[in-house]
Amino acid sequence: MISSTYGLDVSQPGSSPVIQVYTKGMNGLCQVGQDALEPLDFMGAYSNRWSLSFAFGATATKVMILFSEGYGPEQVLPQWAHAIVLFIGATEVGLSSYPFFVCLSTRFQIIGACLGFLYTGTWTVVMIVDIIQCPHGLVVGEYEKIIFYWPSLLCKVFLLGRFAYIFVQALRVRLQMDLNQEETSFLELHQAQYVQQLMKKPPTEQPPKSWIQQKVYEWDPLFQFPCRMICMGVLAMICLYMVSKGDLLVLRVSAPSQVDKPVMALIQSLEEFIDVTEGVWTATTFTACLTCVSYVFHILACYRKHMKRLWAGQKQFLPVMFSKCSSSQSVAAIARYSGWQIAYILWGYLIIHVVQCLFGVLLMYSFVLPVKNGQGVEMVKNLGIGILTLCIIIGFILLQVLIAARFFLQPKILENDKEKPLALDNRRGFQNFNYFFFFYNVLLGLGSCLFRLLSSIVVGAWLIARIDRTIMPKGYEALDMGFRTWIGMLFLDHYHTNPTLICFCHILVLKARERPQQGSTYYQHFNNATGKPEVSKKSRTRWLLLYTLLNNPSLSALRKSQ
């Protein structure tokens, strides 16, 4: 409730009318939800972010089991029932992990720390016993559980230490050995500093930036990522490690069994293909993993860039159809974003891995294997012929541009103009130029079409993990559900975490606190506290009007003429 959170008594006459109406209208709804437990704040939480992130990391093994549909029953179910089974499995994961977040977020820190320590310790002991009793698995083989479980186990150990620290700090406050540093204001320090910077005059000269600040990332002390983004990044990293590690180990385990088959042993080309694919797959595992890791950091950087643009009122970077977003879509988008982003990262890793592996195998068969088999001269000859053909095609394209610039454009108007004006010259020659190049451009168009298709596939597969930008062409952005989720999440964050708006609300709350403490107003001496006023209501109103006009002469010009 507002009154309990910020110390306001909304029942007093001096309280803000807006707060009174809001409180009366939402009283029933707040009465239902005020006692509900809150696992974490997905909107404007900036404290305890890393503890909640490690709590999500502790659930990484369950998320991966859910991702592989491991929570489903062993019986064969109809296809339509899989969505319901997945929802039930996701609910089970949420319920089993709920105490982690509730114990970290509760304001009853002593009870929360004790229960959280016991619950986390129980899960830690269960996981350690499971690893000791059965360290191997059916997919990877030896030490499978150690390889996959150690990130979640490390996160649980961190949570144990965090709960112990919370208990000690809360106990010191309870015993009055330390001051209670609990904040009652919803205005964060970095938000206040951001608003203060807006009020200052910008410096005439910007300080020099290093190469990392210019090309990679520049740290901004006036911006902090919300808890949702940090949790998404940590859980995505852990899940990405599990997928990439399993991807690498499964290939090493399964490849020899395939090669040992009698039929495959007789076919030398197939053995060579398997060896090449295994080597390329192993190498591209690291490159695909590094690509997705860089995407996680790049998404965080884009989130900061887009939010600061929205705070400044700049919406030009958004497609026209997304300049306004539905309120319900934005609320649903922020609920979907974290889960969708992790799924996009994992699926993007697999797709990028396959694409990189295909290109790697193509390079191996085009360059490496011919040299290894003593066909290097023939390979260089074929490569030279291919490069020469490509250069001739590009040369004809550039030739058309040069001829058009030299013979079919009027001269520059001014000598310092960079280009000639878009005005045709020598029209008869231009028509003959168009006619004779028409038939050859048909052939060039076929090659250009294939190149367009190939580049679209490569770029689309390369950027599939990033939902901060659409892979659809202009006008079809609405078909990209991931990008729509990103835009909806940005708008909701913009409306609820804008530092200027929060600072304004903070000032209103402070003024509402100070108002009941004010002793008098400008018109207090007109009130008769002993009884009813001796003058009529009309006379009193006219006297107040005269008093107001005397103190505000500029209002006289705005009065209606009688």
Automatic annotation (TrEMBL):
It comes from the Eukaryota. The keyword Transmembrane applies. Keywords: Cell membrane, Membrane, Receptor, Transmembrane, Transmembrane helix, Transport. PANTHER family: COILED-COIL DOMAIN-CONTAINING PROTEIN 180, STIMULATED BY RETINOIC ACID GENE 6 PROTEIN-LIKE. It is a multi-pass membrane protein. This is Stimulated by retinoic acid gene 6 protein-like. One of its GO terms (molecular function) is retinol transmembrane transporter activity. The chain crosses the membrane at residues 50-68, 80-101, 108-128, 148-168, 225-243, 280-303, 344-365, 385-409, 437-465. It is found in: Cell membrane. Its main location: membrane. The keyword S-adenosyl-L-methionine does not apply. InterPro entries: STRA6-like. GO terms for biological process: vitamin A import into cell. GO terms for cellular component: plasma membrane.
